[in-house]
Amino acid sequence: MSNIFTKAIVRTPADSLGDGLTEAGLGCPDMELANVQHRNYIKYFENKGIDVTVLDADPQYPDSVFVEDTAVMIPVAGGVAAFLTCPGAQSRRGEVVRIKEAISTVADEVFQMEGDGLMEGGDVLLMGKTFFVGIDSRTNSAGFDQFAKVVCKLGYECIAVPFKNGMPHLKTELSALDDETLIMSSRFSTRDEFSSFKKLIAPTGEEYATNCLYTGNALLVPAGFPATAELLDKNGFSPDFIDMSEFRKMDGGLTCLSLRW
């Protein structure tokens, strides 16, 4: 059963975006172009019938445009619950405080990470009724345990995916193309956790294109990766494409820019 998104929260990029965390080595983002790309992202959602709440830019937190890391939206009967995270990157923890009000107005129930638990939403992939959670430098075992306890009570399964691959998040190189197919980099291709899914392996050098956004009835893919586009076409996918060049410079992908439910 598809998790079809009908609502989303985004945050306008701050002019301080270039001061954020990145290991991409692609230079500072062009803010004029970043704002155009962000508006196009919003327009795409709206054209697909998704109701978008746009939050003001928050210059104090350069990475705050990547709202996905601050919370996990959990579909429940008749609504949505939310789990507020505690980012592993200490410089981002204040973002959760800033997002809490917006989350509280839409969620039927709000849970929050406590104690030594760390989690960023970019490490969380929902497939059907199963959450896969990357455990790495941004999300720890204590964070996984807290999150798993909550979602299991809400009727979900939760599977840990520990990795040490020098990338920010699980979804940096792994995401859904539909209800039963994942696209991923080669480093995840033999993982037992994903053995029940169909898999497409991104061509070498185009790993960035593995962060795709499946809305439940549409598929959005980063533009500019021709070998991946050909791979998708050969496997029967007809995605929409969008330029993400300026957010790529800051280690950000398509899923990072929104909270969806």
UniProtKB/TrEMBL annotation:
SUPFAM superfamilies: Pentein. Keywords: Hydrolase. Coiled coil: none annotated. This is Dimethylargininase. InterPro entries: DDAH-like. It holds the Pfam family DDAH_eukar. It comes from the Bacteria. GO terms for molecular function: amino acid binding; dimethylargininase activity. Belongs to the DDAH family. GO terms for biological process: arginine metabolic process; citrulline metabolic process; positive regulation of nitric oxide biosynthetic process. It comes from Desulfovibrio gilichinskyi. The active site is at 169 (proton donor), 256 (nucleophile).
